Every structure is written in structure tokens, then in C-alpha cells.
Amino acid sequence: MIDKLELTHLRTLDALNRCASLSAASAHLHVSQQAVSLQLKKLRTLLGDPLFVRTGHGMAPTPYAKLIAPHVSQVLAHLNAIPLPSTLQPEQTERTLVVSGTDYTQKVVVADLVRDLRLHAPRVKVAVVGIEVAELGRKMQHGEIDLVFTVDGSAAPGLVSEPLFLEQYRCVTANPALAGRTLTPQQLAEHDFVVTSPGGAPFKGSSDGWFTRQGLERRVVASAPTFFMTLEYLKGSNLVAFMPSRLLPCDGLFEVALTKSPPGYTVVAGYHPSAQGDPFMAWVLERVKARLA
User: pLDDT over 70 for what percent of the chain?
Assistant: First the structure.
């Protein structure tokens, strides 16, 4: 029966069609004539047809063998066209890549990735979605999101994380009175802050612990859900804020030098463990890391 045909059977059929003799088919397949003869015997039983009959010039295909020959060739051609990981051709790859990220990682990672894919993998579509932390694990488990760019430790449990780069905070302001000055943490804590609190408690920022460890408490008078809104709130005000260095410089703002700065954080790429053997995903991550190095 057809559903019991194996790859070896198909290759034997194809070789006999091409070579028209047991000896030539065995040489083509790099096996013994006895092995080809045994395969032909199994094929005759499975398909219920002699398939090839002896003639004075070798083996001649039966009408049924001639009928199925194009189908056998097509199946083998499709199998041979399956790419190995080492032969991935990004320019020929057709798929949709669903990427999740915060406003920050979309700006510093995803934007370049989209441009790079348009150049080197133009048949790949990219869907960029925001991060819903509570739903992230479930969506990646069900294949709704392929890749997430976020801060180390904030990805959903169970994901594979690959570090991309270490980001550093910079203190910025639009207050001209601070232009050209270098402040100590104590002096900095005397100024009014705007903090970025994406989805978290208002007036709480990632640098609060840094001030606390030095016995200081900063004055937070405004909070924003994204870094980009924090930048807007800074403009035309006397507020100060910590911003990731890769979002700077920014028109209308300048950096305030500090004698001591808060620690940075690691930006990571996260994906489901099932994607570890995906050659396209490996290629994408290599491109991302090369651009961020």
C-alpha cells in the first residue's frame, strides 16, 4: 500500500526508471544488485504491480511504473529541497516573525532589525506587538510571539534568554542651571525627578534602590509610562531623570555629569525553548547581536 512506502523504496523506483537495469540502478544507489532486487520485490508486493520486466536490454517499466514515475521524482525533489541549518537562505525564507518589546527595545533593537530584514530577508513579514507581561508566557507557549526583547529578569519564566548588551543610565535635564555641572548623589537628590514606571506603581523608578543604599531619598514629582514620554516631560521644565544611554542625545536636553551613577541593566532576547533548533531564529539573533556589538 502507498502509506507503507519508504524513502528507500522511492529512491529504488527512481533509479530503476532512470537506469533501466539492476546493475546500473545499484551503481547509481551505491548498493548491491541483490539489495535493489530485494527492494523491487517488496515494491511489487506493496503496489500490486510488476513495475519492471526483463527485456533483452535490461528492465522495462510497466504502464503503472510509467504513470507513477513523475510523482516519485517530484516527491524526491521536494525532499532534496528541504534546507539544512547550514544551508539556510534568508533571502528565500517566507514566514512571519512576531516580535514583542517595550518602547525602548523597539527603538534600539527592533527598528534596526526590521530594516535589516527588509534588506536581507525581504520575504519575511514582521509583526511588532507591545509587552503584556501577564500574558507573555502563554503567548510564547502557543506560538503567538516568536521573540521578545526586554530587560534581564523580566521575561516570562521558562523562556531561553540570550544577553544582547549592557545598558547604562545617564542623568538628563533641560534645566540650564545644571549645564556643565558635576553633581554628587546627595546634590542630585535635591532636585525634582520624573521617573519611568511602565505598568508599575506611579512615582517608583528602577533607581530608587540605588538612592536608598546611599541613605538618600529623591523627590519624585512626576511619573510616565514610557521613556519617550519622560523625555517629553523633561523638555521645558527643571526636572531631572535617568535615561538609557542609547536613547540619547535628545534635542532640548543635556547630560548632567555625576560623581557616581546607578548601575545599568542587561537587555536580553527571549524565546521559547522549542525555537532553539530553528536556523532562521539563530540567524536573526546573530544579526541582532552583530548590530548591537
Answer: 95
**Mean residue pLDDT across the chain:** 90
Tell me the β-bridge partners of 255: 172
Cβ neighbours of residue 131 closer than 8 Å, sequence gap 6 or more: 100, 101, 102, 148, 150
User: What is the distance between the alpha carbons of residues 59 and 248, in angstroms, rounded to a whole number?
Assistant: 76
CA distance 131 to 103: 9
What is the C-alpha to C-alpha distance for residues 148 and 150, in angstroms, rounded to an integer?
Answer: 6
To which H or E segment does residue 221 belong? strand 219-224
pLDDT tens profile 55-108: 887 889 999 999 999 999 888 888 877 766 666 789 989 999 999 998 899 999
CA–CA gap between residue 59 and residue 49 (Å, rounded): 14
pLDDT tens, residue by residue, 175-200: 999 988 999 999 999 999 999 987 66
Give the 3-state secondary structure of 158-213. Answer: CCEEEEEEEECEEEEECCHHHCCCEECHHHHCCCEEEEECCCCCCCCCCCHHHHHH
Length of the chain equals: 293
Contact, 233 vs 110, CB < 8 A?
no
